[in-house]
Structure formats: C-alpha cells, structure tokens
Amino acid sequence: MYSVRGDAYALPFSDSSIAQTINCQFLNQQSVETEEAFVGEIARVLRPGGRSIIVWRHAQSLLHRGANAVFET
C-alpha cells in the first residue's frame, strides 16, 4: 500500500483506476462548487464497484467541540 500527494481537483490517476479512496475533513472546508468538483474527480478515478470513504465531522458535533476544547490555546 502506498500514498500519493496531489491536487484534489485533478487527481494524478487514470480514469477507473482506483479501488478505494479515503477522505477526512476536506469537504467541510469547501464551497458547494468545489465539493462537487472534488466528488466528480473521485467518481472519475474509482473503478466500477469501487468505494469512497468520506469522514465529514459536523462543526457542532460533540467530537469536534471536544477536540476544540482540548486543543484551544
């Protein structure tokens, strides 16, 4: 297994070449337009039957508020 860095809106992979993507905490910082572009790029690179795991923590969730309380300066 390996990881690759790249532009989220122009992933450095061929169409239908990836079995799985994992995303954490990216979409909740984007506008609707950029969210759509990113999800479209994921759809482009996923193989048929592939899956995408997206972790999207709501800003008012207990987890988010707890992390802010712990790490607040």
Can you put this structure into words, describing what you see?
- The protein is α+β, with helices and mostly antiparallel strands and 73 residues long.
- It is 33% helix and 23% strand.
- It contains two helices and two strands.
- It has helices at residues 32-45, 62-71, and strands spanning 18-24, 46-55.
- It has a two-stranded parallel ribbon.
- The model has no long low-confidence stretch (mean pLDDT 86).
**Could you tell me the radius of gyration in angstroms?**
15 Å
Principal-axis shape equals elongated
| DSSP helix fraction | 25-40%
User: What's the helix count?
Assistant: 2
Instruction: Estimate the mean pLDDT confidence.
Output: 86
H/E series, N to C?
A: EHEH
Measured between the Cα atoms of the first and last residue, the distance is: 37 Å
Portion of residues in beta strands equals 15-25%
Structural class: alpha+beta
How would a crystallographer describe the biggest sheet?
2 strands, parallel
Characteristic terms for this protein:
73 residues; alpha+beta
Task: Please outline the helices and strands.
Blueprint: E1 18-24, H1 32-45, E2 46-55, H2 62-71
Parallel strand pairs: 1-2
Concise overview:
With 73 residues, this protein is an alpha+beta fold. It has 2 helices and 2 strands, in the order E-H-E-H.
